[in-house]
Specification:
Blueprint (H helix, E strand, L loop, with lengths): L3 E12 L10 E17 L8 H4 L1 E8 L4 E8 L5 E3 L8 H17 L5 H9 L2 E7 L7 H6 L6 H5 L9 E2 L11 E2 L6 H16 L18 H19 L6 H8 L2 E4 L7 H6 L5 H10 L5 E4 L6 E7 L7 H14 L1 H31 L1 H11 L14 H31 L6 H11 L4 E5 L9 E6 L3 H10 L3 E2 L10 E3 L10 H4 L5
Parallel strand pairs: 3-6
Antiparallel strand pairs: 1-2, 1-15, 2-6, 2-9, 3-4, 4-5, 7-8, 9-10, 11-13, 11-14, 12-13
Length: about 500
């Protein structure tokens, strides 16, 4: 029984904020090289003598970055988890993942392997979770050390560094400390990594390997199973059925996504009130998962950059709640805004797809034009046109910028109407200044907006110049880049690697 290590990526929602909550609106979501890792191995070797008689098994969850360890008893009869550690350091996402994975294993394993599955469970489950530094804000530590706000300062941190808490208020005893995050969807990536590692460990799926399987197609059925269980566990842990784009990108990588109908998870919501999981899971696996995803990633020679403005992030659920309230109170105006926003989203998608297609068919011309535009402000791009094919590229680049400005305008309007800071004034100034830099195609607030990280899409090698310029705005450029790969089987514990992906990708300045 070897340890299984799986990883899943964080995300950036480029377009589709708020709209993605309702079918059939689509969102463009990019997966990133920031990954969450889950390591699953047996807790006991060999079996404890009384293990068959006790009817339950032990589950240990370790989170080294938070210096936490939690122990649970898992009933093998009804799959309930009892928390037996001292203190209340529960992790509802991992708890739901464990219960749903074991139920899925029992529902799918054939009769002849039933005994070996039960024996495997009796060895206990030892689960370790680790998140790339990019998921968390280390801005305070960098400032406390007197270091400049640069990607180099981030790259100098040890991989999987300890996470600090945001202590709000002076009465620390009565308030739960909040982890400072960058908005990359850590709970979805963590849940997906744990589900994938457990299902692989329990023999339910065969995950694609990070190194060998760049073609995920042959693993589609396995990934679909990981997706269904991860979505369900994540929704139940959150206490609500979200759009699911963060889990979908954690499983399948970058994509154009349309959400599933929320009813597909209704049987799981019933389980919370006491229906046995072993009855619920087969229904979920057979359910009509009607989400839609198509391949999408940034066109070649374009780089995704993220910057952390240092305002501490926003609460997405409360902002979504305010927008929904506004929709109810002013259906006419909100429908109009959504329609315009949807059109701007589609226009951006169309222009980016046109650029990808052109790059495929006329690579040399595409490459030379992108590189020459990368050192100029956008108003000078048309001066680079010397033949008709160049005109097509520049038109698409400027069309993409216009679409992004339209998206920002309508998102801003929606925020004003709903009384929430979707694009706060401080972010507007920063984004306008970023859009005005050489080689910047797009800049915006990802997802639901607010004070989380901002993103930019740059041309050619313009990224390092933008990162340096951001420092003067007191914005910390993160090490995150787009990586279209979804959930993967890893060859080893990531802590044993000499160079982590975050350090190897830090050659940006």
């Amino acid at each position: 029984m070897e340890a299984v290590v799986a990883s899943a990526p964080g995300k950036v929602l480029l377009t589709g904020g708020y709209l993605i909550l309702e079918r059939p609106n689509a969102g463009l979501v990019l997966s990133t090289n920031a990954r969450f890792f889950a390591i699953v191995k047996p807790l006991y070797q060999p079996l404890k003598p009384d293990s068959w008689a006790s009817g339950c098994t032990d589950v240990k969850l370790t989170s080294p970055q938070l210096a936490r360890e939690s122990v649970y008893k898992l009933s093998l009869k009804n799959l309930s988890l009892e928390y037996v550690s001292s203190g209340d350091l529960r992790n509802p996402f991992v708890e739901q993942a464990v219960q749903y994975c074991v139920a899925a294993a029992r529902a799918t394993v054939d009769k002849k392997n039933k005994d070996s599955l039960e024996k495997l469970l009796l060895h206990g489950l030892d689960i370790t979770i680790l998140g790339s530094n990019d998921f968390y804000s280390y801005r305070n530590q960098i400032e406390a050390r007197g270091l400049p706000l640069t990607p180099d300062a981030l790259a100098a941190l040890p991989p999987f560094a300890s996470i600090t808490f945001n202590d709000e208020g002076s009465n620390v005893e009565n308030c739960k400390p909040e982890v400072a995050k960058t908005g990359l969807g850590s709970s979805a990536a963590m849940t997906t990594a744990v589900v994938a590692a457990l299902l692989h460990y329990l023999g339910v799926v065969n995950l694609p390997s990070m190194l060998k399987d760049h073609q995920h197609e042959k693993h589609t059925a396995d990934l679909d199973l990981v997706h269904v269980i991860a979505q369900t566990a994540h929704c139940i842990a959150q206490g609500k059925v979200g759009s699911g784009f963060d889990v979908s990108s954690a499983v399948y990588g970058s994509q154009r996504y349309v959400r599933f109908s929320p009813e597909v998870i209704s049987s799981a919501q019933v389980a919370v009130t006491g229906t046995p999981l072993e009855e619920v899971v087969p229904q979920i696996l057979k359910g009509k998962w009607d989400h839609d995803r198509t391949k999408f990633s940034l066109p070649p020679l374009m780089t995704l950059l993220l910057g952390e403005p240092g305002t501490g992030g926003s609460s997405t659920p409360s902002m979504v709640g305010s927008v929904k309230k506004w929709q109810k109170s002013d259906p006419q105006k909100s429908l109009e805004t959504w329609k315009k926003l949807s059109e701007a989203n589609s226009a951006l998608e169309m222009q980016l797809n046109a650029l990808s297609k052109f790059a495929e068919e006329h690579w040399e011309e595409y490459k030379s034009l992108i590189n020459s535009c990368s050192i100029l402000k956008s108003e000078k791009w048309t001066q680079q046109v010397s033949k008709p094919s160049h005109e097509v590229i520049v038109k698409a680049l400027l069309g993409a910028r216009d679409a992004m400005l339209g998206i920002r305008y309508h998102m801003h309007q929606m925020g004003e109407a709903a009384g929430v800071p979707i694009e706060p004034e401080s972010q507007t100034k920063l984004l306008d200044a970023t859009m005005d830099m050489e080689g910047v195609l797009l800049a915006g607030v990802p997802g639901a907006g607010g004070f989380d990280a901002v993103f930019a899409v740059t041309l050619g090698d313009a990224g390092s110049h933008v990162s340096n310029s951001w420092s003067s705005f007191n914005v910390l450029a993160l090490l995150v880049r787009e990586d279209p790969q979804g959930v993967s089987l890893e060859s080893a514990d990531p802590r044993t690697r000499e160079i982590t992906s975050s350090i190897s990708s830090a050659n940006i300045g």
